[in-house]
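Quick start: what a row looks like.
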Amino acid sequence: MYIDRSTVPGQGTVHHLRTRSGDRFALVTAADGAKHILVYHGAEDAPIQSVALDTDEADQFADLLHSAPLPDRVARLERLVDQLTGDGPRP
């Protein structure tokens, strides 16, 4: 995936993303923390869709995008710590 990050002075940041297949979308993070996902079609410069996300919605969406859910990642980290410290499995 190709990612291009831009700062819009006084407004926030924009991450433009392009997948291997050429699909384009963007994540806009406003200075106040508001987040919007912009979806583009083909070579169009204007987005065809904008989705506003509240902070908790953005967190839930981000968790879904991970290759493993948060509880699975925490459990994996706990196992790695146990291996490094020589402790047995946690209850």
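That is the whole record. The radius of gyration is 18 Å. The chain has a mean pLDDT of 89.
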